Structure formats: structure tokens, C-alpha cells
Amino acid sequence: MNIVVLSGRVATDIDSRVTKDGRLVSHFNLACPKGFKKNKEGKIPAEFHRINAWGKIAEHCRDFLLKGRQVNVRGHLSTNTYTTKDGKRLNFSEVTADIVEFVDYRREASPAQQLAPDAGSAAIPFPETTASIGVPALQDMSISAEAYGVEIPF
User: β-pairing, 89-102 with 46-54?
Assistant: First the structure.
């Protein structure tokens, strides 16, 4: 079975484009902590994963995700090959998202309000509640850290 479940923060700006056949695709990198133990510099080490989203999920990512936002991604691993200019073949792996859950969105605020920074501040606040945007039939299956009484340290 090929199932990937990741939780982390968006590490890059969302790159969206339309393919030749008219399908929308969004790409971003996700920084996922390797655990809860800090290294010598006082930081939690992270792995970076490339995420691809297609269709409606890509549209939501393009319209609502920003660098630094916390998300949960469920999807499958894809391995692709490309040839460099000097003829060398390279393999790389990506996660194709089936569900992207926006963890740090407020339920009562509109998307425009969530993305607008506070007056006089360049920082976008990270609310405490969770909300899910993804495949509509699976929205009720989203699980938050609060449900298990777990505090996420990042």
C-alpha cells in the first residue's frame, strides 16, 4: 500500500500552474520535524518533502496557503526521472496530495480575513483552532493534536 501522511509547515511559496491539458497543479515544500528532540543549536531537525496537489485541492492551496502555515497532508509517494542538460538521469520522489488539511485556520473568519495581516504588523497570526479543507467526504475524519491531548512543540 502506498500511503503517506505528513504534518509540518509550508516551507516555500506555493507554485501553481496550468498544464497543457488545462489541469491546475500546485507545488510546495513541507518541513516536517524529525521528532521532538532539539539538536545542539536548539532547533528541531526537519525533513523537507515536495508536495504536488491537483485540481480543487491545488486551487485551495494556491488561494489559501502561505509559507509558514501548518498543514497535514495525506497522499501517495511518486518517483519520477528526469535527464539533466549533460545527459545524466536523476530520480526524485514527491508526495501527490489526496487531502491537505489546513491546521491553523480559524473557523469563524473568512479566508480573506485569515490571510490579511494585523494592522501595523507584517506577521500573520497562527490561530489555535483547526479546520479541514480537502476531499469533502473525508472532512469529518480530520484529527487534531488537541483531541489526543498532545502539544506540538513547533
Answer: parallel
